[in-house]
Fold this sequence. Notes:
Radius of gyration: 25 Å
Distance between the termini: 44 Å
Amino acid sequence: MEESANSFIFLEGKLNKSILDAFKKTRAKINLFELPKEKKEKFDNFLVANAFGQKDKLNLWIYFRQAMDRE
């Protein structure tokens, strides 16, 4: 691979340290690109509970749908 004029792309979830060390020993040029971790907002379940307690059907449905869309 070192003598090749081609570039090699490996798509892996996560590389082990032993694999990275093997490439570093051969003095390969390594570029790691990682996707940023998604921050998943949690829905406030008390909005649904309060709307249910107040017997507010419209807001109960709206908050319920918002909760289902985020899950």
